[in-house]
Design a protein that fits this description.
heterotetramer; A: 2-enoyl-CoA Hydratase, Chain A, domain 1; 8-stranded mixed β-sheet; 9 strands; 49% helix; globular; B: alpha/beta; 2-enoyl-CoA Hydratase, Chain A, domain 1; two-stranded antiparallel ribbon; 13 helices
């Protein structure tokens, strides 16, 4: 049971499982001496029920917590798991290699793919480099350079999105964060290679969208995608961060909500508890979904691929035409 | 008696005279208004230097303070009146209206907010789009209305901008968009975020059609609007002292834990940091836009002739000039 | 006589003129009283002879001095003199508006032209902004942005070159000066609008070339264009800066040399003494030459214009094919 | 007896043995050489850690020091031997030779410098270009020779690079250029400057033909070479610790009047500053280039088939593999 492992980090709603699994562990050790297995088995059944109940009833905010779980697999993890090769490419050519944006070449079924993602760090040192997954303008320009590279060599583009958003900093503004994001939105619209975006964790607003203008948008089951963080929304609209639960509900940010709104094209199932319980299995599901959409898009001509993407976004919006 | 009181007294006298008529310039009935509101209507306190100014004279000066040069915020309609040749504006898509796709409720329902916004701003959504002429040059123009939920971009703003761009492509017209916005409209959730990609995608088509897009950034332009169509102009012009940026000042100060320089995110700061082409004071704005449109059309006239232009529409507009 | 004006700055080889003109001035004042005009006229004739002799025998290094004369007209001066309109455009959109590179729209005979130039300052404050006419990478990227703008709207490009070279600084290297210059060289090669470059002062190496890949390269009579400054060349090859005269001779940097080498297409005559003696007249000559080449190029199709420029540079080089 | 002396003694003994033979590995006659030069030939002092290394072992290790990892400079021919499959290299344009267009004389005539350079470097100009295969993948490759007037670019280097690029376009081959240069060759004046535009212009055509260009930056690459073809690769790779830049360190220090950081303009500095894709140690270089070529050709095979390829040339090369 993962919950009893030393490095396991439990979320608040997972606390009942901790208690149960501790009980089971203790009993199992006793049982080894006393031989009464029934109590243990009952407890294990109870555990399974509680667990499936917990994960069935996840609130949007619970999903936010899973999406932000410090042990959640990050893009570089998925890349290693789904591709036999990884040739990372660095830099914007103009003065910075933003660690919050990674990019390079991978292979899927003998086809070269340009993989681009936002990347969080797992410790202080890594996060210094990755800036907690918050890209700077230079990161978006690095991504743009790689988009153009992919377009030139006819590489499909696969993006992995897991970012709180673009970095709100002094330099980021001075170097024109707005323009960097806007250019990516515009130029992604012009590509003739297939673009597939996978939200693997947090899809944080414009910072996520800047590598998310794709023919197909896929979401891991416990990832979220939102115009603003629930905390930010609560602070502005409810004027208190305490209303984060309400904001998370109101914003419709889960994969299920976004599928219903027809913003995303597919939900990639995660193992019970979330991808971090079994990154390998989740990556296999991810690869299956990506392959399916790549295969579908490969039947379109370059112009059709571009048109497909443009029409997808052209048609998003709900309004009354009186 | 202080200066303010003096003005107030003078003001009330004038108002008394007006009450014999039926309505003020805005077509509002004055009879029901208390004196203080009346003061606000006929007099305006400059937000730059606190000077009390005749509202009518301020308006005549394009809402720029004669004393300190402060550019007061304009309504979308005022902006159109200032930039578009008199009588030449034809609004399009005025009947694209907001919905409430998420049934969003915070401290009050989004539906109520929409109703209130329509009442206070006098417009149906946060942008007016249409065709009109600028010094006799036909232009596709969109102007954001900050009074309407902070000029925020939801599905309607996105749709109206995209439709305007498609009009510009179809008729081969230059495009002018005038931004004033706090960013994406949270109450429409992900749909508002997607308007960034939607408008940018339409601008890709405009770009490929090699048509001119002049983006005018006015106080304030932030968030998802700056980070999409507003920053994608061939020419970027800002009004003096307008604040323009991606993240808000407070968010940045909280993140980096230090005070930002006073001129941070002002038009002048952006110019110095290579982000915009020019800062143009409002009194020069129409001429400037008009010059740029002229300069950008004179080498391409050959390829322009009759290229998909809807003659009836143009005749309609020309007839008004 | 300009030489007697208060703000006149004489070059070393112009010193004889100063003495003569002083003499003439003094005599003229006396003559007003005494009435002996012959001596004055003789002196004036002598002056004219000396002057034309001086300017006929200018060495390459003398021309370098004229090209660098602090009163020499700069690109913004020519722009004001040749065009009724000037709509300056600023910035690289990414964090800097390099004052050493100016750009904007001008009009020549009712046609819109994109004018781009390197710009020196005339005093300390201006040179702080203009960095003595030495562009940074951001300046070249600003120029590139304007090249693309011109290409989009079918504007011919007219560049004015007067720079000691690209700025050799820490930030310039950190922001990839090399890449900025190289990109301009490559992208200029792809434009389908006419590009005309005018060397108006110093044509300093790669920093000049980065806005100089043109269909037609024109040079003002007293401008220079070189792969390295005579001082730099002397220091490296002669191992002493004293040999600057020899280096200037050896490098073949004058308009006449470069015309003979078929690198440039036309020499624009300056007034005797140099453009700063009469900026207006020089600007008229400049405009005549620019118009002529614009007119010639206007007869070519877009593809022919691009091919013309590419073949021009493809064929530069002198070697033995054994 | 110190370690160095010990090596020297051992060395001299070995040399004595060799003298009974006729020549060393480089085909040079050893008999006439004094002991010190002999030492230099058979032993090499590592420029990184001062360790004395067997030259033959150092070469076997691609001239990378086993103790400290220092990458010693390679001749163009050594580079080709390391990267190109044995026996598959066909040189092109070896007979494009330098002229002296300006009759340039500084402390000595340029003509003399050319003669000396040809003698000391063993090559006719500062670049070798040709076609060859890298792990069975046909490639157009050019390698600069730093020994030849500091790898400077004059008319010949420019012409050979452009001709190579044209070959790559014609035969639809990937291009690999390996730079090592002090910049433009002053002795050819403006003609050398113009080679920057000439090579960049040819690369524009290659770019439009959507062919792969991998640029390898090695110690040192500066000036007009960095600021033209060397920086224009689709992929930019540098060798560890290679110094790469536009302006030289001393010029910059004189200009800004301050000391530069120690790692300034190193490959690692460039990587950190976003200027290159990767730093690849020499032992991995061939595999890395080969992988990249493979990755860049597998999605485009359809459009490759027979597209202008000169079959006889390829057959010739394939016959050698
Ligand atoms: Zn005021
Ligand atoms: Zn060593």
């Amino acid at each position: 049971m993962k919950e009893t492992k030393k490095d396991f980090i439990a979320l608040d709603f997972e606390k009942p499982l901790i208690a149960l699994s501790k009980q089971i562990n203790e009993l199992e050790q006793k049982t080894l001496q006393n031989g009464n297995k029934k109590v243990v088995n009952d407890l294990k059944n109870q555990y399974a029920k509680v667990k499936s109940q917990i994960y069935k009833d996840l609130s949007p905010l619970d999903r936010v917590k899973i999406a932000r779980h410090p042990q959640r697999p990050y893009p570089l993890d998925y890349i290693q798991l789904i591709s036999p090769t990884w040739h990372e490419l660095h830099g914007d050519r103009e003065g910075k290699d933003d660690g919050a944006i990674i990019g390079g070449l991978i292979e899927i079924e003998g086809q070269t793919i340009m993989a681009i993602g936002t990347q969080k760090g797992r410790n202080i040192k890594e996060n210094q480099k990755r800036n907690f997954g918050m890209p700077s303008p230079e990161g978006y320009r690095k991504a743009l350079r790689l988009f153009y590279h992919a377009e030139k060599f006819n590489f499909p583009i696969l993006t992995f999105i897991d970012t709180p958003g673009a970095y709100p900093g002094l330099e980021a503004e001075a170097h024109n964060q707005s323009h960097a994001i806007a250019m990516n939105l515009r130029e992604l619209a012009g590509l003739t290679v297939p673009v597939i975006a996978v939200i693997t964790g947090e899809g944080g607003s414009g910072g996520a969208l800047a590598i998310g203008v794709a023919n197909r948008i896929l979401m891991l089951e416990n990832s979220v995608y939102s115009v603003i963080s629930p905390e930010g929304c609560a602070a502005i609209l409810w004027r208190t961060k305490d209303k984060v639960q309400e904001a998370a509900n109101a914003l419709k940010i889960t994969a299920y909500d976004l599928y219903k709104l027809r913003i995303i094209d597919e939900i990639i199932p995660e193992v019970e508890g979330g991808a971090h319980y079994n990154p390998k299995e989740t990556s296999e599901q991810l690869l299956i979904a990506v392959k399916k959409h790549l295969e579908e898009l490969s039947r379109l001509s370059s112009n059709e691929i571009k048109k497909d993407r443009q029409e997808k976004f052209r048609n998003i919006g709900i309004f009354v035409n009186a | 008696m202080g200066l303010k009181d003096f003005f107030k007294t003078r003001q009330l006298k004038k108002a008394a005279k007006l009450q014999n008529g039926t309505a003020n310039a805005n077509g509002q009935d004055l009879k029901a208004q208390p004196p203080d509101e009346l003061l606000c209507t006929l007099w305006t306190k400059c937000q730059g230097c606190n000077e009390l100014l005749y509202t009518s004279e301020l308006k005549k000066n394009l809402s720029v303070c004669k004393h300190c040069g402060f550019h007061h915020r304009l309504s979308a309609q005022e902006r159109i009146d200032q930039l578009i040749d008199y009588g030449s504006f034809i609004e399009i898509n005025e009947n694209i209206l907001p919905d409430d796709p998420l049934n969003f409720v915070d401290l009050k329902p989004y539906k109520n907010r929409l109703n209130e916004a329509q009442k206070t701003s006098g417009v149906k959504e946060a942008i007016i789009t249409g065709l009109g002429s600028i010094n006799n040059q036909l232009t596709a123009i969109g102007v954001m209305e900050f009074q309407y939920i902070g000029g925020s971009m939801g599905s309607v703003v996105g749709e109206k901008i995209v439709s305007l761009i498609e009009n510009a492509i179809d008729k081969r017209l230059p495009l002018v968009l005038i931004s004033s916005s706090g960013g994406a409209r949270m109450h429409e959730g992900i749909l508002s975020l997607m308007q960034m990609a939607k408008t940018a995608g339409a601008l890709k088509k405009l770009h490929e059609a090699k048509l001119l897009y002049i983006s005018i950034l006015t106080e304030p332009t932030f968030g998802g609007v700056t980070a999409s169509f507003a920053m994608l102009g061939d020419i970027l012009i800002a009004e003096p002292h307008a604040r323009i940026g991606f993240a808000g000042r407070r968010v940045i100060e909280e993140t980096i834990r230090q005070k930002l320089p006073k001129d941070f995110q002002t038009a002048e700061y952006l110019l110095e940091n290579g982000q915009i082409d020019l800062v143009v004071p409002r009194p020069n704005l129409k001429q400037h836009i008009s010059d740029l449109i002229r300069l950008h059309s004179q080498n391409t006239k050959k390829s322009f002739s009759g290229n998909g232009i809807d003659k009836t529409m143009i005749d309609k507009i020309l007839a008004r000039i």
